[in-house]
Design goal:
heterotrimer, A mainly alpha, B mainly alpha, C alpha/beta, A: mainly alpha, two-stranded antiparallel ribbon, 2 strands, about 75% helix, globular, disordered C terminus, C: alpha/beta, D-Maltodextrin-Binding Protein, domain 2, 2 domains, 10-stranded mixed beta sheet, 11 helices, membrane (chain B), Tripartite tricarboxylate transporter TctB family protein (chain B), transmembrane (chain B), DUF1468 (chain B)
Chain lengths: ~500, ~150, ~325
């Protein structure tokens, strides 16, 4: 198999194939950086178009876009507090405070270096460990996946913000939105009120654009200022090689977050946002000064951005070997493979080694190119966009939001739904309801329910089926240790501190 | 704010809490048609929302009794309403009149209304955005945007 | 006033179009509505077939695929049913799914809403078991299901699909009872089978063709062996009369002008003998079985009857 890997290499360096990766990375950064446009949308628009392209050109474009967009999403997350892609939500936590402190440039450099490292780690996992890692995926049946989702949902506790009541309202709202659509088992409608457009559930991108992009646009128009507060001078961009030494001590975070990202990627369904949230939480837990997190800690940006790129290539491991994509973007990419007659499965590696392994190389080169293309070039040009007069910037984002949401399924219904979420999001923003629990609730709520109910059917209604195997028990133990443990510790520690004050 | 004493029920948090309770209760009614296992998760979330919203309501009313001023939603409510109305109007126009005419109109309209009136800048921005969208999506990717329901049928 | 003028113009335009159509159809691009996202099995079928249809229609005909995804294809097929029957809107059609949807939920179309052009793909069902289940033959499977009713868990892609109807047929034929575990789509069901989380699965041959080493494939629900797996015995060879599968084809709105319909059906008919087309379909794992015109309509009616009978006995939602 490793000889196949090397055999595929010359093909990748073919002029058009390599050029496709470059174009893809640049396009990905742009798409990710535009509030309203997402990687999912970009690749779904691209898939029918790639029908007429050579497989490696098409796949190179997609690999490049995926890698580029996962970093590109960080740019508006840092500069405007609008995550450009769902996976960049956790990047706003520390990225935006950094920009407000005048370290926006450094935040973006941390983001691009971390993204690249995560992407490289993930590409290596895909190239070298795909078959054994797909065996790991097989261990996860419905009951195990249910517990993984519970683990993710429990970690919402860390995202509640200062006001637990509001945080929990956000979480319940997110989970409720996730169950709208057809019932996962019976297929009957739930809360769709006869709208066929709602049957497949509410797409993550629609909710995200509404909640995260619309309120800042309203803010841009609300304040009668001519230009934005973040000027060129305040961005504080230095050449990237000068800032690299300041990132050296992130190596532990890079390592941990890469591992988390790869691991979440190979589990079907959970996806980039969960990887970023989890790795952010873990990095904060391991940090010596957790209080500084959320106030502009560069390591927070590093954790989120490493993880959301580390699940790109690894999400393709279950997609290529088993046909079950690890993230929403990988799901769309799977369509791009099918268009070229590349059926997922063990035969794929035997029948089309040059294409499959070439695709893996393209992921690796995409991740490496990210630093070169995203480093100074993209960062500087996008930061300059923010110097546009605020009303103009606002109106352009409005157009992008409409295009981004419309293009996912090609229907106006989604645009209206996005505006509805936008109104809700604006109120939530003003009343300080935290938004991350909504996102995590939407991703994991329906996912947890579906797997719980599948597990119950397998166990024929016996709830003990959830505890009947080792993998499940390990995840339950992990959930208790990582989430319940620290909370109990805090509870027991509290009386002492109260005595002291 | 001067209307602090007008009504305790018009405080934004109180209104939001009442809104959540009403909407959640409405959806709770819709769960009664479902199988028990199907209604379990949505029912739990909606009941949770009702309980939490009641807690929010009680807390905000306590704050009101303590004389704490309500959260201020916006410094310029008219601008917010105007901006939102323009965005909704843009979506409706795209649907009924078509994507390109609406987009050509909305960029200068929003910018001019909210304070950026340099004609050259507006022209340049509109041409660049609409041109790029056309070249990339329509020409490059043969992606169709709404042509306007008024002109079809 | 404005409306009436517009109305008159539209009517006029339609009449002119109708008159012109008789001679030189097609004179503009034909839209093919696919009810699924780009890259799905149905989409790949439509895009693979499109150039061949263009070839057989002749006169520089052009087919443009338009994806209208949502609600398992229902949104797209409804759009086809409501389109003008002028031959410039065609759509893909999935069986038994499209018929089952008219039974298990409100649908704005019925079997009567279409002009049936051709079914192109027939992907037969297969029964597979997990390597861990220890079940290697149909007889073992039936014996186990009879001895412990409901103990055998069956992974499949959804309720109300071809795999579900296949299981109902199996249960009726062998008087046995299974527990259905409906995953979302066949790939998760297949993965659960490989991991041993469910004992048995009902899938389609195109979905297991490349996984035959990782699963026990017990048989195929066709009358003759499939080219995709020539070594795989049919169920009838093993003494079980089971024939079932998932079908994909093309329809147009009801009321197509007769000459247009004839021209389209003739074009689809020629697909069957086109080696190049058959090779392209085989490369994308699509077993071809072309059934055109009235035969396709009869086939659809049969599947509606089957779905209705199953629904009346054991409604699935």
């Amino acid at each position: 198999m490793y000889s196949d890997l090397l055999h595929a290499l010359p093909e990748v360096f073919g002029l058009t194939n390599f050029f496709a990766v470059i174009i893809g990375v640049v396009a990905g950064i742009v798409v990710g950086a535009m509030p309203g446009l997402s990687a999912t949308m970009a690749i779904s628009v691209l898939v029918p178009f790639t029908f007429g392209l050579e497989p490696l050109v098409a796949l190179g474009l997609m690999a490049g876009i995926y890698n580029g967009a996962m970093y590109g999403g960080a740019i508006p997350a840092v500069l405007l507090r609008i995550p450009g892609t769902p996976a960049a939500v956790a990047t706003t936590f520390d990225g935006y405070p950094m920009a407000q402190k005048g370290q926006g440039g450094f935040a973006l450099q941390v983001a691009v270096v971390s993204s690249s490292i995560g992407g490289i780690a993930s590409a290596f996992a895909l190239m070298l460990l795909a078959p054994p890692l797909s065996k790991v995926t097989l261990l996860f049946g419905p009951s195990e996946v249910f517990w993984v989702a519970v683990f993710g949902l429990a970690s919402i506790i860390f995202l509640l913000g200062g006001n637990p009541i509001k945080g929990l309202i956000s979480a319940c709202f997110g989970v409720f939105v996730s169950v709208i659509g057809s019932d996962p088992i019976y297929g009957n409608d739930r809360f769709t009120f006869g709208q066929l457009e709602l049957l497949d559930g509410i797409n993550m991108v629609i909710l995200l654009v509404g909640l995260y992009a619309l309120p800042p646009v309203i803010d841009l128009l609300e304040t009668p200022l001519k230009t934005d507060g973040i000027g060129k001078s305040q961005l504080g961009t230095e050449p990237i090689w000068k800032t690299l030494p300041r990132m050296k001590h992130f190596w532990k975070t890079w390592l941990r977050s890469s591992f988390i990202g790869i691991w979440i990627g190979i589990l079907p369904g959970a996806g980039g946002s969960m990887a970023a949230f989890m790795s952010y939480n873990e990095a904060r837990r391991a940090s010596k000064n957790p209080e500084a997190w959320g106030e502009g800690e560069p390591e927070g940006v590093a954790a989120a951005e490493t993880a959301n790129n580390a699940d790109t290539a690894s999400a393709l491991i279950p997609a290529l070997t088993l046909g079950i994509p690890g993230t929403a973007v990988a799901a769309v990419m799977l369509g791009g493979l099918l268009v070229h007659g590349l059926q997922p499965g063990p035969m794929l590696f035997r029948d089309n080694p040059d294409i499959v392994f070439g695709f893996m190389w393209q992921f690796l080169f995409g991740a490496i190119l990210l630093v070169l293309l995203g480093g100074s070039l993209a960062t500087n040009s996008f930061a300059r966009l923010l110097n546009l007069p605020r009303p103009l910037l606002g109106s352009i984002i409005i157009v992008l939001m409409l295009i981004g949401v419309y293009s996912i399924h090609g229907r106006m219904f989604d645009v209206y739904m996005m505006l509805g979420f936008g109104a809700v999001g604006w109120v939530m923003d003003k009343l300080k309801f935290p938004l991350p629990p909504v996102v995590l609730g939407l991703i994991l709520g329906g996912f947890a329910e579906e797997n719980l109910r599948l597990a119950l059917r397998i166990g024929r209604g016996d709830w003990m089926v959830l505890f009947s195997n080792v993998t499940s028990l390990v995840i339950v133990a992990l959930t208790v240790a990582v989430i319940v443990g620290p909370i109990l510790k805090k509870k027991f520690a509290r009386p002492k501190t109260q005595d002291a004050t | 704010m001067s209307d602090r004493h007008t009504s305790r029920l018009l405080r934004p948090e109180t209104l939001t809490a009442i809104g959540i309770i009403v909407v959640a209760a409405f959806f709770l009614l819709a769960t009664t048609d479902l199988r028990p296992i199907s209604a379990l998760l949505p029912g739990a979330m909606l009941s949770g929302l009702v309980v939490l919203a009641v807690a929010l309501l009680v807390r905000d009313q306590r704050k009101a009794s303590d004389g704490e001023p309500p959260v201020q939603l916006s410094r310029a409510p008219m601008r917010v309403i105007g901006a939102f109305a323009l965005i909704v109007g843009y979506a409706l126009a795209t649907d009924f009149i078509g994507f390109y005419p609406s987009t050509i109109a909305i960029i200068p309209l929003v910018s001019a209304l909210f304070g950026f009136r340099n004609p050259l800048g507006l022209l340049a921005a509109t041409v660049i955005v609409v041109g790029a969208v056309y070249l990339i999506f329509d020409f490059g990717m043969s992606q169709d945007f709404p042509a306007g329901r008024l002109w079809q049928n | 006033m404005f409306n009436s003028i517009k109305y008159a113009t539209v009517i006029g335009a339609t009449l002119i179009a109708g008159a012109a159509m008789a001679q030189d159809y097609p004179e503009k691009p034909i839209e093919v509505i696919v009810g699924y996202s780009a890259g799905g099995g149905t989409d790949v079928m439509a895009r693979t077939a499109a150039p061949f249809i263009e070839k057989y229609l002749g006169d520089g005909a052009s087919l443009v695929v338009k994806n209208v995804p949502g609600a398992s294809g229902q949104i797209g097929v409804t759009e086809v049913a409501n389109a003008d029957p002028d031959g410039y809107t065609l759509g893909t059609f999935n069986l038994p799914g499209m018929m089952a949807r008219t039974i298990d939920r409100e649908a704005d179309y019925s079997a009567e809403s279409f002009t049936y052009l051709a079914n192109v793909v027939n992907d037969p069902n297969v029964i597979v078991t997990s390597k861990r289940s220890g079940i290697e033959t149909m007889d073992q499977l039936v014996e186990e299901a009879r001895a412990n009713p409901g103990a055998v868990t069956v992974g499949m892609s959804s309720l109300g699909g071809d795999d579900h109807f296949m299981l109902i047929k199996l249960q009726n034929l062998t008087e046995s009872e299974f527990t259905i575990v409906p995953f979302r789509g066949s790939a998760p069901a297949r993965t659960a089978l490989m991991g041993g989380h469910v004992a048995m699965g009902i899938l389609n041959i195109s979905e297991v063709a490349s996984f035959q080493d990782d699963l026990n494939v017990l048989g195929i629900a066709t009358t003759e062996r499939s080219d995709f797996a020539p070594d795989l015995p049919t169920f009838s060879e093993q003494g079980y009369e089971l024939v079932n599968g998932s079908m994909r084809g093309f329809v147009a709105p009801k009321g197509l002008p007769e000459d247009v319909e004839a021209k389209l059906v003739a074009a689809f008919e020629q697909l069957n003998g086109d080696e190049e087309f058959l090779a392209a379909m085989a490369a994308t794992s699509n077993p071809v079985e072309v059934v055109t015109g009235d035969d396709f309509q009869v086939l659809t009616q049969e599947l509606w009857d089957l779905a209705k009978a199953v629904w009346d006995e054991t409604p699935w939602n």
